[in-house]
Amino acid sequence: MPELPEVEALALDLRSRLDGRAITKVHVAQFSALKTFDPPLSAVEGTLVDDVTRHGKFLDLEASGVHLVLHLARAGWVRWRDEVPTIPPKPSTKSTLAVRVVLDDQSGLDITEAGTRKSLAMYLVRDPQDVPGIASLGPDPLTDDFTVDVLGAILQREGRKQVKGVLRHQGTIAGIGNAYSDEILHAARMSPYKPASSIEGDDLQTLYDALRTTVGDAVERSRGLAAADLKKEKKSNLAVHGQTGKPCPVCGDLVREVSFADSSLQYCPTCQTGGKPLADRRMSRLLK
User: Fold this and answer.
1) Which positions ≥6 away from 22 have C-beta within 8 Å?
2) Cα–Cα distance measured from residue 11 to residue 188, given in angstroms and rounded to the nearest whole number
3) Whole-prediction pTM value?
4) Is residue 140 part of a domain?
5) Within-domain flag for 141
6) How is the beta sheet containing 58-63 ordered, strand by strand?
7) How much is the average pLDDT of 163-189?
8) CA distances in angstroms from 224 to 141, 221, 265, listed in the order given
């Protein structure tokens, strides 16, 4: 799933590609992707792209007063095409193509989504705050006003909730998902099950530093990369996420996994849980 660093890099890449370009047509190949009806898609056709920005994991193409906002969900991506086909795509539930944006020089963007679960979303709005997911976002963790005290207040407000879930909840902190929450907690040498409100003092500072460094470094590594290179860059720099069964790069212990109904987390027992493996509830149920 694209998270803050990848979406930030996508925005930077597309900002340079779309500068001064006009949107001539938006084709919707997956009708479920379009979440708004007012203004109609025709309102963006013929407009000049003014800017491309990010709100949490949302990508925002601003064009002559309207905003084409994308949420790429778990399996979505943006692919640049130097030349798009002249024949419009046919609506299909089997194709990975969800939306095609055609520009005035016949280049464009293909917004794709792999898999059968179609969660990718596109909104055309006059104000980004008209998108419910943006309106409810928590603070961005890389802004200057996201201080250690702000993080501490969030953790205390969340009480006994597990810190892993707090970090990845978009209404609490914007932009961090499953992968980077695993990476942050590994860098902080902290259990994903640790209660949020118990993180105080030195532990709070450690978590804050790990959060800012992990996400900030990922943004810097991704800066300037083309969209086609971002997934590879992300995977090549993950310490524990997606690394089940491989040695931890810090201590050499094997990275372990806890599976849930629709996701999983990865961690290092030696670095994060005092050598104790966390219970995998899904496997426990299967063994009964």
Assistant:
1) 46, 47, 48, 49, 103, 104
2) 29
3) 0.92
4) no
5) no
6) 76-81, 108-113, 97-103, 22-28, 47-55, 58-63, 66-71, 121-125
7) 97
8) 21, 8, 29
Residues 221 and 281 in one domain: yes
In contact, 132 and 80? CB cutoff 8 Å? no
pLDDT 10s digits, 35-84: 999 999 999 999 999 999 999 999 999 999 999 999 999 899 999 999 99
**For the purposes of burial, counting CB atoms within 10 Å of the CB of 56, is it exposed (0-12), middle (13-18) or buried (19 or more)?**
buried
Q: Residue 36 is encoded by which pair of tokens?
A: 């708004």
CATH number for 218: 1.10.8.50
Distance (Å, whole) CA 13 – CA 10: 5
**Model pLDDT for residues 230-250, shown as the tens digit of each residue:** 888 888 899 999 999 999 999
What total number of domains does the chain contain? 2
pLDDT on residue 282? 52
Rounded distance, CA 20 to CA 30, Å?
Answer: 28
DSSP state of 44: G
20 within domain boundaries: yes
Separation CA 21–CA 6 (nearest Å): 23
258 SS3 class: strand
Residue range of the domain that includes 236: 148-287
CATH of the domain at 22: 3.20.190.10
Q: What is the spatial distance between Cα 63 and Cα 80, in angstroms, rounded to a whole number?
A: 18
Number of helices and strands (H, E) in the chain? 9, 10
